[in-house]
Amino acid sequence: MTSMLTAMNNARGSSLGLIVLAMLCEEPMHPYRMQRLIEQRGKDRVVNVRHRASLYQTIERLLRLGLIEVRETVRGGKYPDRVVYAITDEGRATARAWLRDVLRTPGPEFPDFPAAVSILTLLTPEEAREQIAARRDRVAAELAEIGGHLRAYRELPRLFLLEEEYRRTVLAAELTWLREVEEDLRAGRLTWNDEWLQRIASELTPDEESRHDGND
């Protein structure tokens, strides 16, 4: 159990590792087949595989941890040789433990957007509104795309569409929030300027002397 938890913690660099383990639970395969299946099954909409190197880096990490192993090397003739990987018993157990942990526990995720929102005041209110409006349009377009996918594959069992349902729900909530913030910025209900920011900063930030007094 201890080794499994250690492997799981070390492997949790990205959700791509979990996807790779799940695919290898089905059958041994080489990275090129993994890449194709990830795209064919739409997993590239929930994990970042825009750069093939990220898939190979993930495989190397899982290999070092003993969660997968090399099964064979397929000679490709005119094509490059392909290394076929298989999941180990520890890898299978780790994948299930990892999946249960991810499903039940909200993780400490730190996406870029909330961080950017936290320092919105680096821009003027109008600049911020323009960027929020641009994101609103992109989110709306992505929602429309998800709707198209769900309609196109509506004959599939719902089990295989749950990730798209989840993405649609999350993006719909974000779109509502973006519209509200964009409208408040447009109407001036949400605004700031340098003088106001300096005043707020001075009010909310204790000076050095008061901090030292509080520690004595």
What is the compact description of this entry?
The chain has 216 residues and is mainly α. The chain has helices at residues 2-11, 15-26, 31-40, 52-64, 89-104, 112-118, 125-152, 162-187, 194-204, 208-215; strands at 68-74, 82-87.
Q: What do you see in this structure?
A:
- By secondary structure, the chain is mostly helical.
- The chain folds into two domains: 103 residues, Orthogonal Bundle (Arc Repressor Mutant, subunit A); 96 residues, no CATH class.
- Helix content is 65%, strand content 6%.
- The protein contains ten helices and two strands; from the N terminus they run ααααββαααααα.
- The protein has a two-stranded antiparallel sheet with strand order 1-2.
- β1 and β2 form a beta hairpin.
- α1 packs across α5 and α2 crosses α4.
- The longest helix is centred in the middle third of the chain and has 28 residues.
- The mean pLDDT is 88.
Q: Give the structural class.
A: mainly alpha
Helicity, as a percent range: 55-70%
The strand count comes to 2
What is the overall shape? elongated
- Round the Cα radius of gyration to an integer and report it: 24 Å
What is the CATH superfamily classification of the largest domain? Winged helix-like DNA-binding domain superfamily/Winged helix DNA-binding domain
Distance between the termini: 47 Å
Q: How large a portion of the residues is in β-strands, by DSSP E?
A: 5-15%
- How are the strands of the biggest sheet laid out side by side? 1-2
Mean pLDDT: 88
How many structural domains?
2
Order of helices and strands: HHHHEEHHHHHH
Task: Provide the CATH topology of the largest domain.
Answer: Arc Repressor Mutant, subunit A
The stretches of 5 or more residues where confidence is low (pLDDT under 50) are none
CATH class label of the largest domain: Mainly Alpha
Name given to the CATH architecture of the largest domain? Orthogonal Bundle
- Largest sheet geometry: 2 strands, antiparallel
List the total number of helices.
10
